[in-house]
Amino acid sequence: MEEVDKILIHALKQVGTELSEEVASIRDFTSELIVEAVVRCIRVIDPGLGNVLPTTLPPAMSARFRVGMSLAQACQDIGYKGEIGYQTFLYSSETEIRSLLMFLVEKLPRESAEASDQPTGKSTILQRAIAAAIKSQLADPWLPPNCRLPLHGETQNLALHSFHVQPLSLPHCIKDPGKKSLKEVNDYQRDFLPPVTAQLPHNTCVVASLLEQHTAELSAKQEWENEWNSQGLLSRLSPQDYKARKLTRLRKKIEEQFRSVALPSAESAFGGHGSTSELSDVLQSFRGSASSDHILTKGSHFTHSQKFTFTQETEATPSPGQQTDGDAQFSQQAELTALQQQFQQLCSDVDQLTSELKHLSVTHAQVLDEFKQRERQNNEWEEKVKLKKKTLDLLPDAENNIVKLQALVEASAKRVVNLASQWEKHRAPLIDEHRRLKEICSNQDMESSKKLSEIKILHDKIRVSTEEAKKKEEIYKQLVTELESLPQDVSRAAYTQRILEIVSNIKRQKEEITKILSDTKELQKEINSLTGKLDRTFAVTDELVFKDAKKDESVRKSYKYLAALHENCNQLIQTIEDTGTILREIRDLEEQIDTENSNKTVANLERILEDYKAIRQENAALAAKLKRADSELPTDAQV
Description:
Strand content: under 5%
Helix content: over 70%
Number of strands: 0
Low-confidence stretches: 112-120, 264-276, 289-323
Radius of gyration: 53 Å
Order of helices and strands: HHHHHHHHHHHHHHHHHHHHH
CATH topology of the domain at 2-119: Actin-binding Protein, T-fimbrin, domain 1
Shape: elongated
CATH class of the domain at 2-119: Mainly Alpha
Largest sheet: none
Distance between the termini: 70 Å
Oligomer: single chain
C-alpha cells in the first residue's frame, strides 16, 4: 500500500493539492487535507461542479456537516458507487479514503493524467490556479451593483475601472541573428528604462495598456504573415528585400505628393490632372488656406536683398517726436486695425484670385480639348484634300491612268498573294514555336504554383514546429527545474529495481494463490469422492446386514451398532465442518477488529462526542439569541 499511497500523493500534488513533505501515506491525511484533495480532483474532472465546493472546512460544526454532505453528493454525481457520506470526510477511514482517492485519480482526464506523469513547477500550478479562478468567476452570473445581495458580494464585489490605454516602452528582444541592437539602446533599457508599472500614472491602466500593446503586436504580425503569404512569395524576394522595396516605394510616393503640392506644374495649375490623391488634396487645402505672404517660395537674390533693406529702413525710421504712452497705444491700436483690414482685404483678394484661377484652369482645359479636336479634324480634311487632288490630276488622261491603275492593282494583288504565301511559310513554324512556348509557360506556371503551395505548406509546418518547439522548451525548462529540486542521491536504477521487485512479488503472490486454489480444488474433489465412497459402502453394508438381521439376533444387534456408528460419524463430520466454519468466522472477526482498529474508531467516537458537544453549545447560543430577540420585540412595538 505504500507504493499506492505514493502514487496517489504524487497525482494529488499535480492537481494543485498542497501536501507537505511529512505526509507519506493516506494514514497521515487530516480531514482538511482530505477535503482539499477531493475538491481539487472534482474541479479538474468537472469544473462546473467543483468550483462551487470550498477547499477548506468552516469552523462551525453545522457548516462542516453541510460541506461533507455536498462533497458526498458531488462524488456520487461523478459516478462513485461506494458507500459515502459526511462521515467519510469528517471521521475518515483509511480504506474508504484510499478507495475514494483511487477512483478520483482514475477519473481524471487524460491530459491531466499525462501532466501528472510529468513534473511541473510552481509557475504551472499558479497558472492552473489562475485559470480555475477565472473560470469560476466567469461561471457566476453577472448582476448590477444595485441588485447584488450580500451572498454575491464575495464573488462580484470588484472595482470597476474604465478601459484607459497609454503607450508603453518595452524592451523587445531581436530574434533575427543577423540584426544587432545598438549598445546605447541596450544600456538605456538595462539602466534607465522604468518597469511597466512605473511608466503609467495609475495602476488601473496597466492591464489595459498591456492588452492593447499585445493586441497591436499580434495583429501586425498576422497582417505581415498574410501579406507575405499572399504577395511576398509571389515577388520571389527575401523578406528583408521585400520590406526594403516596400519602404522605398512608400518614400517615393510621399516625396512625389509633397513635391506635387509644394511645386505644382503648369498642367496641374491649369487643370491638366483631373484627380489627385487624398494626401495631395489635404496638403493643397493647407497650402490654399494660407496667405500668399506665408508661402515658402523660392525668390531671387535681388528680391531678398530688397525685402531686407526695406525692412531695415522701416524699422530704422524714428518717430518725429516723443509721444506719450496713451498716444502710442492709440496709434498702435489704429495701426493694428488698419493692418487687420488690410489683411482681410488681402485674404478676400486671394480667395477671389483662387476662384478666378480655378475658373481659368477649367476654361483652359476646355480650350485645350477643343484645340486638340480641331487639330484632328484638320488632319482628316488635309488627307481628304490630298486624295481628291491626286484624283483630279489623273482625270485628263483617264484611260491610260485606268490601265496603269489596273496594272498596279494586279501587281499589288500578286504581291499580296506572294507575301501571303511567304507569310504562311513563316507563320506555321512561328505558330508551332508559339504553342510550344505557351505550353512551356503553362507548365512553368503549374510548377511555380505547385512550388508556392509547397512553400505555404512548409511555412505552416515551420510555424507548427516552432510552436511545438516552444512548448517542448518550456516543458524542458520545467523538467530541468524539477530535476534540480529533486534529491540527487536517489538514482533511477533504484526506482527501477523497486518496481521490478514489486512486480516479482506480485507474480509470486499470484503463483501462490493459484497453487492454493488448485490444492483446495484437489482436496474438495478428494472429499467428494470419499463422501460418495462412504455412502455407497454404508448402503451395501446396510443391505447385507439387514438381510441377515431377520434370521439372527446377534446380527440384529450388529445392525443397530452399525446404524449408531454411521450416525456418530455423520455427527463427527458435521462437528468438524462447524469447527472450520467457526474458525473462519473467528479469522473474519479478527480481520474486522484489525480494520476497525486501523479506522481509528475510538478516536472517531471521541471526535463525534466533541462535535456533538460543540453542536449543543451552538444550539444553546442560538436559542439564547432567539429568546433575546423575542423579549426585545414588545419594546420595539411600543416604540
